[in-house]
Prior knowledge:
single chain, alpha/beta, Methionyl-tRNA Fmet Formyltransferase, Chain A, domain 2, seven-stranded mixed beta sheet, 8 helices, elongated
Amino acid sequence: xxxxxxxxxxxxxxxxxxxxxxxxxxxxxxxxxxxxxxxxxxxxxxxxxxxxxxxxxxxxxxxxxxxxxxxxxxxxxxxxxxxxxxxxxxxxxxxxxxxxxxxxxxxxxxxxxxxxxxxxxxxxxxxxxxxxxxxxxxxxxxxxxxxxxxxxxxxxxxxxxxxxxxxxxxxxxxxxxxxxxxxxxxxxxxxxxxxxxxxxxxxxxxxxxxxxxxxxxxxxxxxxxxxxxxxxxxxxxxxxxxxxxxxxxxxxxxxxxxxxxxxxxxxxxxxxxxxxxxxxxxxxxxxxxxxxxxxxxxxxxxxxxxxxxxx
Length: 311
């Protein structure tokens, strides 16, 4: 692969496998990432995962608050990039920046576009019950994930896979897609970009903590998907038998909630060793949970410590 003068822009863990692959195959001349943010109980400033990786590799790091000011533009122009690659960077690239690299700007997105444009494609795919998802490499334009597609890779979503688990798999897939695209570009075999079908587009809005509140009137299947989609953040939460809980893993059952109101704890009746809650339709079996001020535990551990829940 003939190396390009490449700038990489990313911030969270999702972007790290792609940066690590570039360091090995086409070392970036610089990395852009979000400014350090307060983190942890002490609210001390912390570098992003991408910054930590870039610093360890000895790569120049840029951390602009905005890409709209002249100083940032000139700093990028001075790098004379052939290509700018982004992955979960967090800032939109203005038209002026998009036109700066000789080959434009590429973006790695964690969905099969045009499905799930936006900030939460992984969570939305699970919430919707999608059977498959993947990675799209696109040529960026001024819209939000609307650019023409350069390459895609698909994968099945596991029936019990959490957003965190799917995130990690897709992050590794993104790195593979990027390196293969760069190789094909160097050989002159990268296909022409394919326009997205805007009529098929769906939107993946930013996740809020309040989204993870469990509504027991929903079907058990829908609640199970929410538990998976909001693990590891913000984590599904609900009150069960008067106790506020965070629910990390759960399993839906079609039957078993006759004459029970949604949200009712079901014990006994052939299931004394499980935590089951009636839903609008079906039952949700809670497998891993956490009460305020206590450790995350399995249902068995919880029942051993809370005998009154066994009925």
